[in-house]
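Hey, I was hoping to borrow your eyes for a little while. I've dropped the whole record in just underneath, so have a look:

——
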Amino acid sequence: MKVTHAEKKRLNSVLKSMSSHRESYYGHWQELANFYLPRRYNTLLSATEKKKNFGRNPYLLDASGTRAAKVLAAGMMNGITSPSRPWFKLRVPGVDPDNVKVAAWVEEVERLMMTTMAESNFYNALAVMYLDLAIFGSAANLIYEDSESVIRCYTPTVGEFFFSNSSRLAVDTFARKISMNGRQVRSRWPSKKGWPTAMRNNPEDMAKELGSTYIVNHLIEPITKKIVGVPSSRRFVEYFWIEKNTEDFILERSSYDELPGMFPRWDVSGNDPYGVSPAMDALGDVMQLQQETKAKARGLDMMIQPPMNAGIELESRETALVPNGINFVSDVNTQGMTPVHKVALPLGELTADLQDVRASIRETFHNPLFNMISQLDTVRSATEIDARKEEKLVLLGPVLERFENEGLDPGISRVFGIMNRKGLLPPPPEEIADTDLEIQYVSILSVAQRAIATAPTERFMQFVGSLAAIQPAVVDLPNFDNLVREYGRNIGVSAQSLQDQEVIEQQRAARAEQQQMAQAAEMGTQAAQAAKVASETEVGGGRSVLNEILG
């Protein structure tokens, strides 16, 4: 595709600026990759390091940090976006939740979206993204249309991509450098325009193209001004071009109605486009763990195979150093072999210190939140377990909120947009044709976070119940209907599961009327019984109590 020289220069300038801003994070990411996932993120290693460390892992002697990161990633996957249960709901703001037509349409849209996500690689990409978040604090998941599975997700590795913030301090500009061989370039972009000169002028040679390597630059940015050939309704534009191609050609330009990806961060500081992670906080402990594990192994070696002093007459003899071996010397009291020094390794203390370091790493990665019950040394009550879980969830709350805003919201909007444009969603009812949908998260962690808000309600009702024993009038103070509705919302009960207030009033009125009728009937029965007794009770002279009452 032909572009102006100024536009091509601008694209290269944007990528260069983003690359320069990322330099301060690169060294830190290299350390994280070395001590957590050294064989996975080769993009963070230099050519010399790749060759030096090929086939072995020179950094990890104890994998506790890697296991802790994977527990956190798996816990978030299961707790936030579990493929086995619904984790989000759609709602139409301002519409009666009892509207059967709207509710049926929303439920069908939710079902189709969940099915599409399950049948694509959406959840596989999320699993990788959670691990990137836990270790590097920044992750990316690109979502594109696919002819086979509706959507297709791609997760660039850390070190490959670049972020830039908007004025709202949210990531709205994404770039990356992709290493591709000639065959991949030819297959992805069949048009020769934008190809490197060597590939464009030579005939197709499979062996040669497989051995060639090209850097393809990729940029996604918001549209801030009119672009010729791009509809004015589009919000984002995407470019691909060969890095060292000096001609004014690019491989591809596309535009989108919504951000074509998810770019979440664990936590951020100020205007930084890249996030910080639990792995960064635990890096010192992980490095200490490797050092102490190495020292422990060296100490054991010194105890088992210490350096020895040997008699001079043994210099030219074979020496038996295996168990049950015998060495013949002239004087066993003065000659033979003895250790240079005895190593008394404090094995108990060293093992205990290693356990403390491992526990600190697991705590930093929030592992107790996900395996709390299995880690308890004694059986605890359900109340204590709930209290411990609330305490841990408070620490994870801001992370969950950020992930929903920066990751899940754009992802769900992207999937909905793709399916809607493909005609895979049913047409909405007329009354909500131009209404935007809202997303409500109903995952385990989201519901648990909201459930924390029920604690004040529970304490208040316990207080009212205990006070009512000595002052019954206090039960007139709470608005029980509102308290129950608010409690239901906080624990994830849908509005459709609760009766409408008008229906409740009608039911209460009918119940009150039935009670009044029952009371009147009971009073009539009691009056008839009393009259019978009075008529049968004589007071003398052939007269009864009833005769006396009636005069």
